[in-house]
Structure formats: structure tokens, C-alpha cells
Amino acid sequence: xxxPPLPETRLDPRYSAPDxxxxxxxxxxxxxxxxxxxxxxxxxxxxxxxxxxxxxxxxDGGLHFCTGPExxxxxxxxxxxxxxxxxxxxxxxxxxxxxxxxxxxPLTDGVRLRALARAYTEKYGDEWTFxxxxxxxxxxxxxxxxxxxxxxxxxxxxxxxxxxxRWRFTDV
Length: 172
Hints:
This protein is α+β, with helices and mostly antiparallel strands. The protein has a single domain (8-109, 146-168), classed as Roll (Pnp Oxidase, Chain A). The protein is 19% helix and 41% strand. β6 (82-87) and β7 form a beta hairpin. The protein is globular, with a radius of gyration of 17 Å. 27% of the residues are buried. The model has no long low-confidence stretch (mean pLDDT 95). Keywords: Oxidoreductase.
């Protein structure tokens, strides 16, 4: 997999303290890699939002998640693959929050899926061990298609001092 492009980085002074600086994308990647829980936002066919927590793995410049083929998020993605994934700290004055916007693309390549299956087990433990069959994860809950989201735009929200960084990926 080629090296992902570095994003254009911009601090938004409207939402940042006077002494704040833009966050580095490498820091954001480290936080995306370490985060255990993400919130996925999708859009229902009738236009209403749907938000749900899930596990995700950062690998090769993108976030990856799986879901049952008949779960609400999977049904939504069939109609509209545009998503936002959010992770961070549920506190006002500490931590760093991240929002990743992009298109959820089904991933079916067996080699990449096996690498992701290993990454899930390494990150989340043995209860998150998947086999790979017919272009999807297979586990205790049955078949689970896997989706990849390469950031198109990402936002970082620092809290000490308050700062909002936007990363824009021009090649995505």
C-alpha cells in the first residue's frame, strides 16, 4: 500500500485560543491508532441520521470497521457511503477529540482482510478474532463486511488550550 499523502493542516482561529497552535497529523494518527471506541455517523435512506458506537482499526492510512450485513449502519451505507467517525475524551478541559470524514468503501481483498483481522485481535483481544471468508470477516456473530474510510477531511479539537485543527486531504 502506498504511503498516504500528508494533509493540508490549518488552525481555525475562530475556535482556538490565542496561544494555540495547529496539531500535527502524526499526533492524530497516533490517537486514531490507540483509540478503542469510535462513534460512526451514517444517514438513513429517509435522511435521518444514525449514530452508533463501534470498534475500528487504523491501518494503511485509513480507519476500518466491520458490521453485520443487515445492521442499520450497513443498510445505510448501501444507499449513502458518506460517514463521519468520531473518537476522543468525554471531558471539557482535558484530552483531544477527532472527527474523520470520508467515504466508507467495502474492503474484500483477502490479504488485506487477514492483516486487519490480526490487527483487531492485537488491539482488542482474543474475543475479537475473525476468520476471513468470501471477502468478509466471519466470527461468532456471523459474516461481517469490512469497510475502509480514508480521511477526506479530519478535525482535531484540543482542550488545553482550546484549538481546532482541520486536516484536508487533497488526493482523496
